[in-house]
Amino acid sequence: MTVEFICVGTEILMGNIVNTNAAFMAERCAGLGLDCFYQTVVGDNVERLKETAEASLRRSDVVIFSGGLGPTEDDLTKETVCKLMGKKLTEDEKAWKHIKKFFEKRGLELTDNNRKQALVPEGGIVLYNKNGTAPGIIIEGENAKAILLPGPPGELIPMWNEYVEEYLRKLNPAVLVSEMVKICGAGESKVETVLKDLIDTQTNPTIATYAKIGEVDVRVTAKGEDEKECRKLLKPVVKEIKKRFGARIFTTDENVSLEMAVMQILNENKMTVTTAESITGGMVASRLINVPGASDIIKLGLVTYSNKAKRKYLGVKRSTLDKYGAVSEQCAKEMAKGGISAAKSDVCVAITGIAGPSGDGSTDRIGLTYIAVNVMGKVKVKEYHFDGNRAKIRESASTAALTLLRHCLLENLTEKTFSTG
Amino acid sequence: MTVEFICVGTEILMGNIVNTNAAFMAERCAGLGLDCFYQTVVGDNVERLKETAEASLRRSDVVIFSGGLGPTEDDLTKETVCKLMGKKLTEDEKAWKHIKKFFEKRGLELTDNNRKQALVPEGGIVLYNKNGTAPGIIIEGENAKAILLPGPPGELIPMWNEYVEEYLRKLNPAVLVSEMVKICGAGESKVETVLKDLIDTQTNPTIATYAKIGEVDVRVTAKGEDEKECRKLLKPVVKEIKKRFGARIFTTDENVSLEMAVMQILNENKMTVTTAESITGGMVASRLINVPGASDIIKLGLVTYSNKAKRKYLGVKRSTLDKYGAVSEQCAKEMAKGGISAAKSDVCVAITGIAGPSGDGSTDRIGLTYIAVNVMGKVKVKEYHFDGNRAKIRESASTAALTLLRHCLLENLTEKTFSTG
User: Fold this and answer.
1) Is B357 at the interface with chain A, CB within 8 A?
2) Which of chain B's termini has less CB crowding within 10 Å, N or C?
3) Are residues B9 and B147 in the same domain?
4) pTM of the model
């Protein structure tokens, strides 16, 4: 079965935003074993959208549209596709109720053009939007099916997970089961080198690597008669990958994030944690708190960006700052000790680093970061050199902090070692 | 003049990589005042590549290809496009010398198929590649021009800067200048309604709105002979938008974020800030710290997620928590007061809310958030109702906190009011 994407939006054509929706949908479709031969981006223009949609609906079984479902004048995707597929638009009561509630909740005033978002094609499947106003729509034409999704990733991704994934799976007869082996603390080229022989000889299951910041996900996908057969095909391959990366693998569950894996260890061991952040300025605490049930585990998050705050709230010695500077192994160590003293927690992770040019404008140390983890008095410090812009360096540092925190917890709580990489 | 992009690569179709080349080229072309109506991604397949290239060369003046210039069997872009445009391939001596040198330098061994990278079309303009082996090529056909560029951004971007930008500028004398009017605290449809008359009658400058979480950006773009003329065209339109949204506009500079605008106000007034975060768990501090030079302004960031932490570090009264709960106007107020007492800062922003199901599993209050801003003892509290998943609610809350912080600062420091919206 072939599927293709049409992403609608002038902001993509103007380069205002990167088309991450296409990458997300492409990865998911690959995981479902669907053949995707084209991605197209077109602006909010009836003629060009019509021409593009026509060609796509002719050559593919399923065409997935993203964007252009908004309330404004230039949002035309729904109107154009429905006209093309000969479907009349009628108001969906539930969708309209939902939109009204959405606005009331925010104390925002409804405008007439919001009402057009509640219009859906006759016979279409409505995908209600929990994260925005525009509902998604599935239109089943004679030759091809069209799936219309809202443009904002915060709306598209949950809608995909709730409706689209399942709908596509049902359409595709072949059963595909995949496991996502998530590896922290190893770069993509490293992972590819270690898996090269497996990747080169892959047929079924297939192996694909996806590089994230500070994390590499390896998707192993098996095609078979039923789930049982797929699992059987997956088992030896996943086992082999586990053998090669050991404890650096933090999950094989697509839905488990690094922060979830860390919180699980803390939770299972009834341990509390404190964060002491400088360069990451709260990103590590924020990521941990995004995991439900964090309040029993996270005793305190301290953001101590200035030297003064490091001294006052974490008890970092003035002499340490004078002698070694705030971005040093010594400072990180004292921060990690001070965090536990301040909050009486079992564990503390401390991060200090340089995200941009320093006061004197020197750029040579940008990216230098020290992360210290204190597990019940046992402190481990590691030096890192990250690259990229300010935001990327900070993102890398927060992922590295979670990675080191996890490793230290496992090393202290189990006999796991991290020989690989 | 119209230009479009064809990005060639199975790794994009599989979602292994995000198509950042398209975003880069799109932004550059927009800056040159070129009309870009399509972006297409197609795999390394002769038939589909030929079909796509044919359509693009028919409808656009310039078609820019990226990827598929490598040495391997499945790199077919050059061969396919040249055949389509009726150009013979001959070896370019300089390109071949360059490739040989590139390999010698790295002690790599040349393979026969590297030689195919030195083949260029007769009469084509060769763009020598300083960062890789594949040269770029410009083919000037009768109807359209084709520009072939290597896929790796590390090769494409420098080649663009060295050759392509200048080549395109010569083709198109018109210049495009745009200003980004960024508005906080108003929804997209609200902004659309207020600007409807301007948008409906837009020709030059054009007006486009981009919805972000808790923020709407309005891009006003003028086309003219030179920058001076464009600025002149922009001025009255931007002035009119400013008139309609008043102080809700936090910048007209594309590169200024909401957090930067807030930090600027604090900096100009030599004020220090403390963050007291529960639901956002450090996101607000993190966003402020992403602005360079934050260390003089941010005294302390406190992440107090549990009730115990709210009492211990912010002095929230137990009776307040018992009587009103942690997610209440009263608690937010006490947090905002406690933050200033704890850090002796001039300003404190406090955020408390419900991002997910509570202990008893009840979901009815999810999204309810109270944000309090304390400016030198003067406290303002506001109630919000956000929805979406856990991450989206927290993101909305952090943007709302920065928005309220900015408004309170302006209201206390100037006579600005926020009648609009």
Assistant:
1) yes
2) N
3) yes
4) 0.78
